Sequence to fold (299 residues):
Amino acid sequence: MPATSGQRPAASGQQPETRFGFLDAFAVREIRRGLLKALAVPGYQVPYASREMPIGRGFGTGGMQITLAIATPDDRLKVIDQGADDSVNAVNLRNFIAASCPGLATVTRTAEATLIQTRHRVPERPLQPGQMMIYQVPYPDPLQIVEPSEAKRRRSHAHGDYARLWVKLYEDVVRFREVSISNRYPARVNGRYVIDPSPIPRWDLPKLHRSRVAHLFGAGREKKLYAVPPFTDVVPLAFDDVPFEVERFRDVVGVRNCCQRCGAADTYLDEIPQPGQTSRWQCNDQDRCAENMGYPDGA
Fold:
């Protein structure tokens, strides 16, 4: 079989050279150029030729392709899934990326990472310059919930016409007295395009506003890239008399619950049912919880 572009053919009796990052050179160039365009036009969905990966589409191929295209041997990679470093999704993606990128270090502490690939959460620890967020995105277009035709959605984005999305929010207010969207909450970027911020909870959306790092979004199945550059305005869609609100985590008498492991009252919490007992609350971000506890047991 002929060698792929940029890869030396193996000598007789030798194993073929392993390519850093798994993707061929043409794919890396295309993704990087697409990301540059996405950063230059915040919120714009850039089409690209999503590659076949050794996992099914919809299991994080978009975010993984971005990571494989931009990672260097000097980077330190953290992969999280719903705030956890030890879930099946996070462990398998991290192992594959590490095997595909010889020399790439993997970490679990947010402060040590330069690349953070995530599914559905933004770390609680404030991100610093030199870091980069990479999101696994199932559905990149916020208009998909109100318009099934991609051609019409493209025209709406081109004209900045998000009336049907506003109607959806208004219907929620009329029916429930609040917007019922719990994740994938639409937000306007840089005063122009409205984006789907991936299925992060509302709690995480304010972290994108004027962030100190770049946020890169990849949808492998939908073959789209988009981005939020550093220090860019990201404003959730909301009415003047019905402001945007994040999750409150209050008990039946209105008191804010706290993590029963580390005591934090300023993090996104998971409610863990206890048979025959009151539910237990715990930080969703494992690293932040361990950090609050001083990283016990070498965590």
User: Anything to note?
Assistant: The chain has a mean pLDDT of 90. The helical segments are 25-40, 61-70, 88-100, 150-159, 163-176, 286-292. The longest strand covers residues 277-283. Residues 25-140+194-233 form a domain with the Rossmann fold fold (CATH 3.40.50.11310).
